[in-house]
Structure formats: structure tokens, C-alpha cells
Amino acid sequence: MVPSAVDRVVYLHGFRSSPASAKGRELAAAAAEWNADFSAPDLNLSPREADALVGSLLSPLSAQARRCTLLVGSSLGGFYALRAARAYGCPTAVVNPCLMPWDFVPQQVGLQTIFGTNRTIMVKPGFADEFRELAAEMPAAPLDPADALVLLSTADETLDWHIADRALRDSPKVLSTEDDHRMQRFAECLPAVRGFFMRRKIVPAFDAR
Prior knowledge:
Blueprint: E1 8-12, H1 22-33, E2 37-39, H2 47-58, H3 63-67, E3 69-74, H4 76-88, E4 92-95, E5 110-113, E6 120-123, H5 127-137, E7 148-153, H6 161-167, E8 173-176, H7 186-200
Parallel strand pairs: 1-2, 1-3, 3-4, 4-7, 7-8
Antiparallel strand pairs: 5-6
Helix pairs in contact: 2-4
InterPro entries: AB_hydrolase_fold (IPR029058), UPF0227/Esterase_YqiA (IPR008886)
Protein name: AB hydrolase-1 domain-containing protein
Organism: Sutterella wadsworthensis HGA0223
């Protein structure tokens, strides 16, 4: 049975983060207020496994249901979210997205702690190549720039926010001035995220054929 077209919010967390992160909790609370279903897969996997997990959540949905599904990706989760936006036509909001994960992964190789938990992830040298392969197969950019809302912190200490600003220059933006990579004022941005979703879900997905 194909799931019906109810509003859904899917949160894709960042590198070494978890579904229970502060943004995940804030978004879950917002989704409840919006009467939307909420899910947040654990992406502490290899790049290909994480990407496949995201796809498994979206591929069973009808075209209409995908338009009623808001993806919210933070940092590395933004990479997966933008690829999924392109593949499945879902409206997508990304928070300080990491668009070139192959650049930082080599410095993270080894056993790493997942923030806020007692769990670990083994970051392997081959992860960088997996990210490059994924990006070559399908870029981290929606077919229609209007399908991505880009939230950027102008004092991001982890990523240069100008990279995403330039790469997604035709997409709408929300700038959180002097905010950090975690985006402390994320909750204040949620009304803009909600408004974006309500506008985009009624617009048919872009068809490049």
C-alpha cells in the first residue's frame, strides 16, 4: 500500500550527531504543532548506507506524498537531504549544509564518539571516496532551486557559510547573523521553515524530462 499524502517531516542529523540532538527535539516539537508525522533516522553509518536509508524512507511514497514531505538536513544531513530533494522532489530545508564532506572526513578517520551519547562510530578512510562517488552520481542540489530553503549562520565556526551561499545561490535563504554551526536560534527560524513548506508542497515537483 502506498502511504497517503499526509504532512511529514523527516530530520537528517549531522556528522556524529543523532536524532535526539537539540535541533531534532525542536523540530519534533514543531512537527507535532503542525500535525505532521515526524521521523529522524540514525545516520551514523557509512555514506552509502546512510544515503540508502534516506532513500528507503522516501521511495515508497507517491509523488503527492513526497511533495507533502519536508526534509530538514543539518550539516552533513544537508548533503543527504539535498540529494534526496533532487531524487524525490521533496521540499527541503538545510541548516549550515556540508556540501563537500570529502574534505573534512579524512581528519575524522578512526573511532569517534557520537555527540551526546555513549556510542561510537568508526570513520573509515574510504568514506571520503564514497561521498565523492555519491556526489558524482547525483549532486547535492535540487532540480528546482526554489525547493530548497537554506538556513545559514554567519559565524559558523565549522564550515564557511559562503560556500553554501554560492552553491545554492538561487535558493531562498535565511541568515542567522553571528550564529554558530549548531544554529542556536534554529527554533526562531521554524516559522520561516513552516511557511516555505506550505508554499512548496502545493507546487508540482520540477520535471527535467
